Amino acid sequence: MKPTLLAVAHGTRSAAGQRQIRDLVAAVARRRPELDVRLSYVDVQQPRIGDVVPAVRDAVVVPLLLSAGYHVRVDIANAVEGTGIPVTGTLGPDEVLLRSLTRNLPAADAVVLAAAGSSDPAWRESTHEMASKLQAHVAYASGSAPKVADVVADLRRRGARRIAIAAYLLADGLFYRTLHRAGADSVTPPLCLDPTVAGLVLRRYESALLTTAAGRL
Fold first, then answer.
1. pLDDT at 212
2. Domain 95-192 belongs to what topology?
3. Does the domain formed by 4-91+195-216 have CATH 3.40.50.1400?
4. Mean pLDDT of 64-68
5. Residue 37, strand partner residues
6. What is the pTM of this model?
7. What are the phi and psi torsion angles at 187 (to 5°)?
8. Helix 196-216 vs helix 15-31: angle between axes, to the nearest 10 degrees?
């Protein structure tokens, strides 16, 4: 039986976003054909991680999420509780994502790092860490303040002529589409479209194997 890499995405109603996540997972599977690479979700789509975990053995869970928050601490943690299945760190913050954002940013007077939004302190801290590395202003597409459109408008008032949004979002969806209505001059593509992200997913998987092996010694 093949070892399992169980990827866990948030889930989206966007057909484009669904396809992008499936394509990312398929790219991971092509790179490591000796693995049983499966996809599950914490919200919106099926199958949910709690339904998949009982059917897998010798598995590692890799959250296809950019920051740790409720879905990691509660949804994923509850799904694997008592199973011994390790859960890797989230995909972000990471230099792979930083390089992807930087490659896709045009010349601009100001950059806004636009994330989904969360009240979770750890989630917000990791988002600010990425923004600091990118030398960008932090804004959120949903929930938390400051909102992306408000930050863009404030930068315009302060004299910025060209504003770029660095989309700190993995796939297309409602949040990503709002960025194109926020008044900036450009928006970077969803991160999962970058081929290097598949390598990052595998690096997270391999790091969990090393940690587990070290713990057994």
1. 64
2. Rossmann fold (3.40.50)
3. yes
4. 91
5. 5
6. 0.93
7. -135, 130
8. 60
